[in-house]
Design a protein that fits this description.
Blueprint lengths: L1 E8 L12 H15 L3 E5 L3 H10 L4 E3 L14 E3 L4 E10 L19 E9 L5 E8 L5 H16 L5 E6 L7 H6 L36 E5 L4 E7 L15 E6 L3
Parallel strand pairs: 1-2, 7-8
Antiparallel strand pairs: 1-11, 2-4, 3-4, 5-6, 6-7, 8-9, 10-11
Helix pairs in contact: 1-2
């Protein structure tokens, strides 16, 4: 089975962004998704009204996920997928904290609650299965990112399935947390996750088009039983606007039959 995967930090709807507020660029965000044509789109920072809009204008996708706050509101790590291609047979959201099952919980100096949403997708054509994890790690606390990565590694290691991990990790490839995530001993019987160093340019640009960091902070990672044909950065405007303050990243993935 082959599928195209996209990770896309949407940038939450913030009045301080002026002309880059969601209402002014939401059509360009949808256009970016259409251009890539991914079967699975992992989004970060989406608020309920933003995600509802994308569902309305992109009816070919279904969505799973919930907000990170205790009441289900706030930013989501939502996963969009093509229901004509896949059935979602399991969906879960957990919190990166000492109480991962408690909505709204946070630990280790994290400024805000941070979550992971994952789902198991089964091909309607072949019956092949892949897990997709979507994460957004803390932007302030290195300890929170490291502890979150440890939790993520343990969760992936406990799933004996081909796995894709997408998200905004707020960390460049050579940081402690990303080295831990992609080390050979990290997960899946010591085989690790692949893809940390597959992009040689930054992915956060703050609506300028010029990366603010030398390396990426947005990733598509995978277990070694998957074949990934390149990881690509979508770094252009649509109708004169940037879709977000992050460049979307996409890749073609082959799941073994």
């Amino acid at each position: 089975m082959r599928l195209r995967v996209m990770t896309f930090n949407l940038r939450y709807d913030n009045e301080a962004d002026g002309g880059n507020r969601w209402q002014d660029r939401r059509d360009t965000a949808a256009a970016a998704v259409r251009e890539v044509g991914a079967h699975v789109v992992c989004t970060q920072e989406g608020l309920a009204h933003m995600l509802s809009y994308l569902q309305d204008v992109l009816p070919e996708y279904s969505m799973v996920g919930r907000g990170r706050d205790a009441d289900g509101g706030g930013e989501h790590s939502a996963i969009f997928f093509r229901p004509d291609r896949f059935e979602a047979t399991a969906v879960e959201t957990f919190w990166f904290s000492t109480e991962p099952g408690v909505p709204g919980s946070r630990s280790w100096g994290a400024v805000l609650p941070r979550i992971c949403t994952w789902c198991r997708l089964v091909s309607r054509e072949t019956g092949e299965t892949v897990r997709v994890y979507n994460v957004h790690l803390d932007n302030r606390s290195e300890e929170a990112r490291r502890r979150s990565v440890e939790m993520l590694v343990a969760h992936v290691a406990g799933a004996d399935e081909p796995t894709i991990v997408c998200g905004d990790f707020n960390a460049e490839p050579l940081t402690v947390e990303m080295r831990l995530l992609c080390s050979q001993a990290a997960a899946r019987g010591g085989r690790g996750l692949l893809g940390c160093t597959s992009l040689s340019r930054g992915t956060f640009h703050g609506f300028t088009g010029t990366p603010a960091n030398a390396g990426p902070i947005d990733y598509i990672l995978s277990t070694p039983d998957l074949s990934v044909s390149g990881r690509n950065v979508l770094d252009r405007r649509f109708d004169g606007r940037w879709p977000s303050d992050h460049f979307p990243v996409w890749a073609d993935v082959t799941v073994p039959g």
